[in-house]
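Issue 218. Parser rejects a valid record. Input:
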Amino acid sequence: MDNGDKKCFIVTPIGNDNSDIRRAAEGVIDAVIMPTLIDLGFLESNITVAHRMPQPGSINKQVIQRVLYDDLVITNLTGLNPNVMYELAIRHAARKPVVQICEEGTKLPFDIVEERTIFYTDDMMGVTQLQIKLKQTVLEAIKDEVPDNPLYRVIEGAIIQKSEISSVEEYILRRLDGIEQAIVLNTSNTHAPNLNKLNNSKTMRNQKVFYFKFAGNEITTDTIETILKRAILNSNRYAELIRVSEVVVPDEISEGKRVFIIYIYDPTGETSTKFIQQSLLEFVTGFEVMETA
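Output the parser choked on:
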């Protein structure tokens, strides 16, 4: 099978060196996942595991880039590790092929419990059974160009239809009440009480709106939300992403590019267009500031 040009990223719980978690994870990778992928024609050099990445620099950035852009991601949900769940959410936002495996006995969260997951038993027979199931599931996954997942079952159809209005600012103001809120990917429970800020008049007064154009189809509102939520958290600023919406405007305004509107709760006023743009460009090229006047 010719899959030599395809890249696969393996998302797995890590644990400390020589811990039971690490030994179990490494065993699944080396005894099942790697041999199965190589048998399917993947090159070993194109199969990557986060904690084995040799490249210098920001591991977090490299991990997110691989999760976003590799042809296939295999996630081991055993133990429901928070980092694994976060990276799975990013992959779902990218709407690219993903295969989920999980040790028997793990109770999956309600929002992914219906997703196709391979359950395995951690013994010798389980290894053989997992290899067979994994091979078939990988073949099906890489053939699916537009995979279904929990996010896209919710947000499909959320893009506003084209308008005859010639001014972006006028378009946004007239249609603001009709813009649907996109799925919010929670990365911190401490921010959960603030998710309904749109209904608060004080929040509206402290809301900043940014407009960007993007040339390409490989980005989604959910991916933008994920990148910006993490950037805001890491910057330690008193601000919060409210939502990201995509709107369709006439080509003479958008220049044929996709238009995104980013809403930030920013009572201190320290969040700038430059900060938003730099945060996005760290992971995805092609974002341009859009003039609205």
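Fixed in the parser; the record now loads. Residues 157-289 form one domain.
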